[in-house]
Amino acid sequence: MSEQQLYELHASICQTLANPKRLEIINLLRDDEMTVSELTESMQISQANLSQHLALMRQKGIVIARREGLNIHYRLGNPKIIKACDLVRQVLIENLESNAALVETARA
Amino acid sequence: MSEQQLYELHASICQTLANPKRLEIINLLRDDEMTVSELTESMQISQANLSQHLALMRQKGIVIARREGLNIHYRLGNPKIIKACDLVRQVLIENLESNAALVETARA
DNA sequence: AAACTATATTCAAATATTAAAATATATCAT
DNA sequence: ATGATATATTTTAATATTTGAATATAGTTT
Predict the structure, then answer these.
(1) Which of A17, A35, B48, B60 could make a disulfide contact with A71, Cβ separation 3.0–4.6 Å?
(2) What is the pTM of this model?
């Protein structure tokens, strides 16, 4: 597998993370698995659209589905996903903070 | 700032990471800053397109530019970006490995 | 100031992503 | 078998992203 190909696969995982609803799903699954119904109730999203997002994430191995009767339970495929998301969120927060600091400097 | 808005900004950072060339740039800047010329020479990409990618990353604070004469030196805006990318790459590698394991199981 | 070098920006066409709507499938209960 | 519930898939229109081509800008050298 070439480095180029790895970068492409890497990018496609990032692409899968590049959606607010999907990030919200990942956060909801942080500690425990949840059924599709539970996710639908916890979020502002239609069942069909939620299912589309879950299908995408399943394909990339970001979440794993497990059927139990009528319900399907979803969980994260790899706990490192949460670590990665948390790191990116920290970067975001730090960027916001230093922007705020810049604004302060400009006012002074 | 609402959680929704945070998820949107978070997603937009992930979106910025969701491109193989941009990931390659980040990796090249891992340890040291580099000029645009150096980056152009290290990668299979046109100068104009590289500049477009750098502009996007600048806007998101992922990368910082510093002019020195004719050259512009780029460096990472936050070392945590590298950590996050490395984590996602680990997730990718682990997914590839468990896929390979699955194929083995299917053959056996 | 004219030429040169390094880098950035704008525009447009091709391509990819998103979400709603409609429909389909799987399991369970009767 | 029928109906009910939970979830998934397909299609489509709107929107966003990507890249090459052309052009612009900033700093330097002569």
Answers:
(1) A35
(2) 0.94
